[in-house]
Queue: 3 jobs
Job 1
Amino acid sequence: EAQVTQNPRYLITVTGKKLTVTCSQNMNHEYMSWYRQDPGLGLRQIYYSMNVEVTDKGDVPEGYKVSRKEKRNFPLILESPSPNQTSLYFCASSLTARYGYTFGSGTRLTVV
Amino acid sequence: LAKTTQPISMDSYEGQEVNITCSHNNIATNDYITWYQQFPSQGPRFIIQGYKTKVTNEVASLFIPADRKSSTLSLPRVSLSDTAVYYCLVGDLGGNTPLVFGKGTRLSVIA
């Protein structure tokens, strides 16, 4: 089944403890992206990648890192999480930035 | 990319046709229009995409006037399960820049 898989679905962590949210797609898509969604603010883009080894900042990149070493994986790294990064995170992929995006099921992160 | 403006929320009764209009006054020749649907705690789902005139699929229709400064998503005979947030986005045909999601329109369908 064609899909975008995010892990974990839920995560509670403490301030400053490094964490990684994984994202993997099995559709050979070139484009991948991370979003965060907060009440009243809609979906905001964190980072995106047009292809392997190519990443760019979105609207809210501060406090996040990403890497795209291979086409299928696009992990989101929080080196030192803070409570203001408590949010619902979505990974998405697409053939290119133009075509219909496929989203993962989301990761609900709580930083205490 | 052109900025989009859409209503924050709409209410409708079951069985009615719902039209959500999006304004994109600064749309460029190389831009297309796409709509997504999002249910609570789920990722957005692609609904429909178009460049001009009318596009129809099994879920919705998209009407784009000749000047392309607006577009209307039409959902026929909505049901309670159509309650969701609907996003209107403008993207470039070349796919060189990512789509930017705004706050969308929250549609509430009432029995």
Job 2
Amino acid sequence: AQSVAQPEDQVNVAEGNPLTVKCTYSVSGNPYLFWYVQYPNRGLQFLLKYITGDNLVKGSYGFEAEFNKSQTSFHLKKPSALVSDSALYFCAFNDYKLSFGAGTTVTVRA
Amino acid sequence: DSGVTQTPKHLITATGQRVTLRCSPRSGDLSVYWYQQSLDQGLQFLIHYYNGEERAKGNILERFSAQQFPDLHSELNLSSLELGDSALYFCASSVGDRGSVAFFGQGTRLTVV
């Protein structure tokens, strides 16, 4: 079955340090991959997507993600994390079922 | 504000009852997705409608049903409710299907007592 996996339940970083949230995919054909963020008691917000083209995708709030076909990964990155980046992050793919990984809780400490 | 409206925001009901959750997509969006989010199950895809037709179905229980109307709003019907159905239910809408960005509503928090 097609899926995305987020191997880390939690990521903790200090403010100003680089942030990486990992995602691997098992999707046949050309994967349509997305990253979303969820703040407490809110709906999900779109960060970025990869459909085709450049492997490095730039998104909202300074986030970017690199599509790596050989490693079947789509990791989310931010060069310098902010306390306000603390939230729940979801990787997703869309094969008409927009399906999400289990989520990674990011905590950025001041 | 994503432009996706879900009503009601909160719903408390008893076991065995039936409820209807409503989703109004963003203007111009043809796709509507429904999700159930609970602490132990994460974000579970339920169903996807595109321009009134069912496009994909997830592990949606037989007690649950949905439809998308000609004006593109959608309703999720939950019947014979059980305690385990307590969760946050989200809908999302997008212009197209696979490659389009989905915008999420604020969710309906359902509590079954």
Job 3
Amino acid sequence: GEDVEQSLFLSVREGDSSVINCTYTDSSSTYLYWYKQEPGAGLQLLTYIFSNMDMKQDQRLTVLLNKKDKHLSLRIADTQTGDSAIYFCAEKGDYKLSFGAGTTVTVRA
Amino acid sequence: NAGVMQNPRHLVRRRGQEARLRCSPMKGHSHVYWYRQLPEEGLKFMVYLQKENIIDESGMPKERFSAEFPKEGPSILRIQQVVRGDSAAYFCASSPFRQGDTGELFFGEGSRLTVL
């Protein structure tokens, strides 16, 4: 099945860490992704993780994958105002990506 | 190296008119995907095309919607007799291979359709 779920909103203070959670259903997914969408723009790939990994770190971003629970999270350290955006979790099926509804992250001063 | 180019960025149509959205994939990419984003919803897959072939159109409404990716020129998403419910952002994405290195899709900026 293709059902990716994420919470819709997150508000975080500048300088704190943000954690965005996602659950997916397709246990055969090979890759899982986090995309960022700024207002009026397209989606940009932030990071991805291969399904045989459980953690990936890339500068301020940390991705954690729990395959047993089909749970994916994205942690943004030292959140900045420029991190305000919609973050989409996506899983890869045979050849297409299935997206969650997106989490709107608002960074407040 | 230009990214995925979509035009028009904004399109306004009256009910019953036709909308044509164009997408030029990144150079070297032969696989194109169209997604629709409704207000406050995620991206919903519509159709996956390779040059001159529709591979999967399972996400596309059976009526009024069609897509093509000709040998020469951009991919076109065509919506006939638009209704208010078609108002959405339509995103095109491309990839170099069907399975790709990581399966990453490269997205355009989107075409925002408003139906009056």
